[in-house]
Write a structure and sequence with these properties.
The protein has about 375 residues and is an all-beta fold. The chain is built from 1 helix and 24 strands.
Length: about 375
């Protein structure tokens, strides 16, 4: 290179990925015979240093919602948010699949897609704006996603299934419920449901849920499987519909050496109100309004299946072993109706048990006010 005036050109360009790249072209350089000590040494950082720490290169995810983690610039003025772009294919030249925004926590960040990413090969790259306006870019990381399975065969893939219905019921602790038809709601016991879930929420597919959960089947039907004995190897199953109930199952404090049969209780929910149970007056007393008066229905539940189940109303309980039955709480008492089989009804007020066969009903009357 001959002595003389030369020029260094710094070019900033964009390779269609919305991230500015840099390249230096030496058109001409000034040469000098001066001592090297007089030259300015070092470099100017144009953006914060970034890295993707997870997933690692070549990682295969069985979730369509892979969590991406990494490190970021943490100097004063560095952007508190890291942008993560996921591209289709083995490098960043592929189509942009989704941009993600990851809030920075100190020098660390983490982000998870909110929509599923189909199975395939992808490349992720992170970027962050620095205090001086420069943009730092991480090295790209290529990973793969495979289609997740469906362990409980309920039509909900495992990476979106928070309540795995493939797990068997545990005596006194959990039951398995599967939506058969319609809309079913569930309310979990305090502190035992998915994090952040409160009140009644829709139930989908099949789920292993804790004992104490409440199910609203007023507009749907569920198949419920519970442990049949303390051993936990045998199960019993029945369908329940057209009512709101709470699932309970009591077990001995000390597990017996020999398996002992267990009863699964379905406790009706619904309390009478003074206006609902008040006797109609005038023309309405002829039965024109069935929502009020002694026969007003406060809560009910239909059951159909095999096993030792007990439907608990306010004034009686019905124990079955394979039948179709209805238990209905009314202002006047608890009515049990049997469509198939035989039901043993325990009348709480009269302290007696009555066998009710198919085609018959029994009313356990409410206590009279003295």
């Amino acid at each position: 290179m001959t002595p003389g005036a030369h020029t260094v050109i710094l070019s900033i360009l964009d390779l269609n990925d919305n991230i500015y790249d840099t390249a230096v072209f030496a058109d001409a350089l000034r040469t000098s015979n001066e001592s090297a000590a007089t030259c300015v040494r070092g470099s100017q950082t144009i953006g914060p240093g970034l890295a993707i720490t997870g997933p690692g290169p070549g990682f295969t995810s069985r979730s369509r919602f892979p969590t991406l983690t990494g490190t970021a610039g943490n100097a004063p003025g560095d952007d508190p948010t890291v942008t993560v772009r996921i591209f289709n294919g083995a490098d960043t030249s592929g189509a942009l699949v989704t941009p993600l925004s990851a809030p920075r926590n100190g020098a660390a960040w983490s982000v998870r897609p909110t929509t599923p990413i189909p199975a395939g090969t992808y490349t992720a790259q992170a970027s962050q704006k620095g205090a001086n306006g420069g943009i730092g870019v991480s090295a790209p990381v290529t990973f793969s996603i495979v289609q997740p399975g469906d362990r409980d065969l309920d039509g909900i893939l495992d990476d979106e299934d928070d309540l795995d219905g493939s797990k068997p019921p545990v005596p006194g602790k959990s039951v398995v419920v599967r939506v058969v038809s319609g809309a079913v709601l569930i309310r979990f016991p305090a502190g035992k449901g998915p994090r952040g879930v409160t009140g009644f929420v829709p139930l989908k597919g099949s789920a292993n849920v804790p004992v104490g959960s409440q199910l609203d089947t007023a507009k749907g039907r569920v198949a419920l499987s519970s442990a049949a004995d303390t051993g936990g190897k045998k199960t019993q199953k029945a369908d329940f519909y057209d009512g709101v109930f709470q699932v309970k199952q009591s077990v001995p404090r000390k597990k017996p050496k020999k398996a002992k049969a267990l009863i699964t209780d379905l406790v009706l929910k619904g309390e009478p109100s003074r206006s609902q149970c008040a006797a109609p007056k005038g023309a309405r007393s002829a039965g024109a309004d069935k929502k009020k008066g002694p026969k007003a229905v406060l809560g009910q539940l239909w059951g159909s299946g095999k096993g030792k189940f007990r439907t608990d109303g306010k004034y009686s309980s019905a124990t079955v072993r394979g039948t179709i039955w209805l238990v209905q709480d009314r202002c006047e008492g608890t009515l049990t109706k049997v469509s198939r089989g035989t039901v043993e009804v325990a009348d709480f007020q009269r302290n007696r048990t009555v066998s009710v066969t198919a085609g018959h009903t029994y009313l356990a009357r409410a206590a009279r006010n003295k």
